[in-house]
Amino acid sequence: MSLIEIKVPDVGNVENIDVVEVLIKAGDQVKLEQTLAVLETDKASMDLPSSAAGTIHELFIKPGDKVSEGALIATVLTSDEAGSVAEPAEPVQQAAAPAEKAPEPVAQSVAATPELKLEISTGSTSTHAAHATPAVRLFARELGVDIQKITTGTGRKGRILKDDVKSFVKKVMAEGTAQSGSGIPSMPVVDFSKFGAIEEQNLSKIKRLTGQNLSRVWLNLPMVTYHDEVDITEMEAFRVALNGEKSKDDVKITGLIFIIKALVAAMEQFPQFNASLSADGERLIFKKYFNIGIAVDTPNGLVVPVLRDVNRKGINELSAELAEKSNKARLGKLMPADMQGGCITISSLGGIGGTAFTPIVNAPEVAILGVTRAKMQPVWDGKEFVPRLMLPLDLTYDHRVIDGAEGARFMAAVKQYLGDIRRLLL
Ligand code: CAO
Predict the structure, then answer these.
(1) What SS3 state is found at 163?
(2) Average pLDDT over the chain, rounded to whole?
(3) Residue whose CA is at the smallest distance from ligand 1 atom 9
(4) What is the domain range of residue 12?
(5) Are residues 360 and 228 in the same domain?
(6) Which of 278, 294, 304, 320 is least buried, going by the fewest C-beta atoms within 10 A?
(7) Are residues 290 and 419 in the same domain?
(8) Is the dihedral angle over the CA atoms 45, 48, 49, 54 positive or is it negative?
(9) What is the pLDDT of residues 178-187, one digit of tens each?
(10) Which atom of ligand 1 lies at the shortest distance from residue 298's CA?
(11) What is the CATH number of the domain that holds 159?
(12) pTM for this one?
């Protein structure tokens, strides 16, 4: 038995080299040429191979240390068998800036791992090659992981560590059932705490379910959003007059109720908007009832209560029902039945603001109407500019069911009803 000292070999007159990773600990068995540590200069990172086979007796470095040529790395207890000691090995260079005085890479080692990519770390230049030691690459290969797919490493300067490979495998396994066969690349896992203080909070159940549903719709429906605006000056005057007649305990009428009525009138005219595509995508299922979903913002997330048989109800009745259902929604008291059976949904942000947005269809419905804030605008009437109250509308539709021209005609009908609400009586 003899004790062999492993030292930093000649790395080309470079001093104060960073120790970025130590891959062994006292008591480990090491083979000849096995990587013991990873060193890094401004220009290159290199694996430090063992020049002896045996047991690590003592370790003299840790990550973060700085070493120079001749520094003691570890002592190895060898069995004195032939071949257990070699000449001090050259470090295997993984990265080198071109035309610098850095040491030559060991050709055989590079050839032995042909997928090893040269990584240039010149400060401002970045490379997309995975930044990992041969040992980590080997570990990834053994698990069948393409290391290029691990976009963030938690090691120094973004180096991919064994733990990153393990986290990647866990993430892929967790996503396996949900995403199998979709072929959609997963999002990178980012450790935000590296950049500052963070706090984690679980999503509410509603947010989680809404998120799943929205993602499913986004991936399954080819959606188009059509934007337009409608002159609601007269409608607003009528609404204000109606509210003026009400006592303070009565439910006030908001513009949304007229939009709901106009939408249903347009659906009666264009039945394909009151339809759903069959599961095999071969047939349209037309509905003979007119139920409108209203997206309601609640502290726990978005919910969509449904107003039923809107075609058979008047403005006052609908106002009372909307007030009741949106209150229940905010108190978390809606029953599943309150949120089922919708034909089209309205998402109104008008009470908050906005000029336009692109709502996502509440499939299996085929369209959704987005509403943002009405505002006074100068409108040319053929002779002069006159102040008119203009309401922006956004219609997103499932393009498998609705053609662009149909979408535009449908919106023209909605506008006609809202522009002159007397037409709702026809
Ligand atoms: N333009 C201008 N003002 C509008 C407006 C519009 N398009 N829509 C509403 N307003 C006004 C109302 O007249 C009311 O004014 P007053 O306070 O002076 O009476 C005020 O804004 C608040 O209205 P409201 O939002 O309480 O009532 P509503 O009937 O318009 O909407 C509801 C009801 C339940 C849809 C709404 O409260 C809500 O929750 N909106 C958010 C929905 C949401 O988050 N959608 C996003 C979905 S993301 O996909």
Answers:
(1) helix
(2) 85
(3) 351
(4) 2-123
(5) yes
(6) 278
(7) yes
(8) negative
(9) 544 567 888 8
(10) 39
(11) 4.10.320.10
(12) 0.64
Other C-beta atoms within 10 Å of 404: how many? Answer: 11
Cis peptide before 336 (omega within 30 of 0): no
Q: Which residue has the higher pLDDT, 131 or 169?
A: 169
Q: Which residues are catalytic?
A: 343, 399, 403
209 shares its domain with 331: yes
Give the side-chain half-sphere CA count within 13 A for 390: 15
CATH number at residue 330: 3.30.559.10
pLDDT at position 146, please? 82
Least Cα distance to 236 among 423, 425, 419, 426 occurs for: 419
How many Cβ atoms are within 10 Å of 24's Cβ, its own excluded? 19
The one-letter code for the residue type at 418 is L
Contact 295, 345 (CB under 8 A): yes
Distance 256 CA to ligand 1 centre (A): 7
Pair (168, 244) in one structural domain: no
Average pLDDT over residues 52-58: 93
**215 and 353 co-located in one domain:** yes
Task: Say whether both 375 and 302 belong to one domain.
Answer: yes
Examine the domain organization and report whether 19 and 56 are in the same domain.
yes
25 and 169 housed in the same domain: no
Radius of gyration of the chain from its Cα atoms, rounded to whole angstroms: 34
pLDDT in tens, 329-343: 999 999 999 999 999
Contact indicator for 313, 320 with CB cutoff of 8 Å: no
Q: Number of folded domains in the chain? A: 3
Question: From residue 263, how far is each of 44, 90, 122 by CA, in Å?
Answer: 65, 77, 61
Tokens linked to 386: 């006159």
Q: Cα dihedral angle (89, 90, 94, 97), rounded to 10 degrees?
A: 170
253 touches ligand 1 (CB under 6 Å): no
List, in order, residues 6 or more apart from 144 with CB less than 8 Å away: none
Nearest CA among 106, 102, 132 for reference residue 117: 132
Separation of CA 208 and ligand 1 centre (Å) = 24
